[in-house]
Amino acid sequence: MKFHVNRDVFSEAVSFVVKLLPQRNPQPILAGVLIESTEDGLLALSAFDYEASARTVIEATIDEPGTILVHGRLLNDIASRLPNAPIEISTDEDGGVAVVCGPARFALASMPVEEYPAIPEVTGESGLVPGEDFATAIAQVAFAASRDDVTPVLTGVQLEVKDQHLSLVATDRYRVAIRDIDWDGAQHDATALVPARTLNEVGKTFSHGGNISIAFSGSGDREIIAFTAGNKTVTSLLIKGNFPPVRRLFPEQTGHYAVVSTSDLQEAVRRVALVLDRSAPLRFTFGQTEVTMDAAGGDAARASEAVDSTLTGGDEVTLGLNPQYLLDALGAVKSEFARITFTSSDNANKLSPILVSAQTSAEDAGNDNFKYLLQPNLLLR
């Protein structure tokens, strides 16, 4: 095999396909990047670890068609540091790979192509979502997924297609985040539980890629989902299991709520939480005209601060919240003001969660396409 390619184009392509590769892989062959010439004279680069795959096609001058497999992260390190000149990559009869770029020359060992697994193909029905909206939705939801592999279904983000809308849902038992965006595609309902790590990479990669095609494919233990924009495709094996029915946790009546400046509350929470012991809740008192935060930590350290707010529909409320979980919600709400709604529960012995949503102004509610439910913590007297 022998080809010539633009340095920047090749470096960007290699960087894209290696992003989803794990740092340590028990099977060395899966650390490789597959480079192959296509029938129409283009160059395809792929990476696959049985869980996720990435593939992109770029323009190149193909002198001798063929297929090679080389160590992905090493190739990425080399490509990102090559001088500003065209790249020539070729193979010899002994299986060596030569990389030449201006005065720089590298000799790499190839890996056995015949041992590399087949990259999954997706042939199922698909739909389109706006790339920027999808990337924003991922950022608003994926952080609420669990990082504890003990319960795999909670480490994913549930994608739900229904009535020309795509919903993204995530939970770690202590909070739930939901974001809805438009879906242009098949009318039938569909669900897919996608690993949050993979979905985060999809959001970063395709945030400015126009429309993204999302396709569902496979069956049984090999159900996969594919995200395609332009010349790039990412596939992911779906997480098996039943995602908890978290939608029923959201209240229908939301008449008791406080409205507060998002940025003012963020800054105050960050300051007051400085004295808290790790994982300790922060005390919030939502009054008629302000919300007060109080914290007490080790070494008799204390802090308090008040922020203007407006309380509607009920009496003053005092509760304890995980400050980082609240900051996550305030960072995701994407509006100047936030509405914090106090829900009710039929169980008098259980604390009722709060609902965080957008508020366009101090008086006007925002759209309800993002909702975040957070369970309060018990406060020690």
SSE layout:
Blueprint: E1 2-5, H1 7-18, E2 32-37, E3 42-48, E4 52-59, E5 61-64, E6 67-71, H2 72-79, E7 87-91, E8 96-101, E9 104-109, E10 126-130, H3 131-141, E11 156-162, E12 165-171, E13 175-182, E14 184-185, E15 190-195, H4 196-205, E16 211-217, E17 224-229, E18 232-237, E19 257-261, H5 262-272, E20 282-286, E21 290-296, E22 302-312, E23 317-321, H6 323-332, E24 337-342, E25 354-359, E26 370-374
Antiparallel strand pairs: 1-5, 1-7, 2-3, 2-6, 3-4, 4-18, 7-8, 8-9, 10-14, 10-16, 11-12, 11-15, 12-13, 13-26, 16-17, 17-18, 19-22, 19-24, 20-21, 20-23, 21-22, 24-25, 25-26
Helix pairs in contact: 1-2, 3-4, 5-6
Write up what this structure looks like.
The chain has helices spanning 7-18, 72-79, 131-141, 196-205, 262-272, 323-332; strands at residues 2-5, 32-37, 42-48, 52-59, 61-64, 67-71, 87-91, 96-101, 104-109, 126-130, 156-162, 165-171, 175-182, 184-185, 190-195, 211-217, 224-229, 232-237, 257-261, 282-286, 290-296, 302-312, 317-321, 337-342, 354-359, 370-374. By secondary structure, it is α+β, with helices and mostly antiparallel strands. It has 3 domains: 2-115, Roll (DNA Polymerase III, Chain A, domain 2); 126-247, DNA Polymerase III, subunit A, domain 2 (DNA Polymerase III, Chain A, domain 2, Roll); 250-374, DNA Polymerase III, Chain A, domain 2 (Roll), CATH 3.10.150.10. Strands 15-11-12-13-26-25-24-19-22-21-20-23 form a 12-stranded antiparallel sheet. A hairpin with a 3-residue loop joins strand 3 (42-48) and strand 4 (52-59). The longest helix is centred in the first third of the chain and has 12 residues, at 7-18. The radius of gyration is 25 Å and the shape is elongated. The termini are far apart. The mean pLDDT is 91.
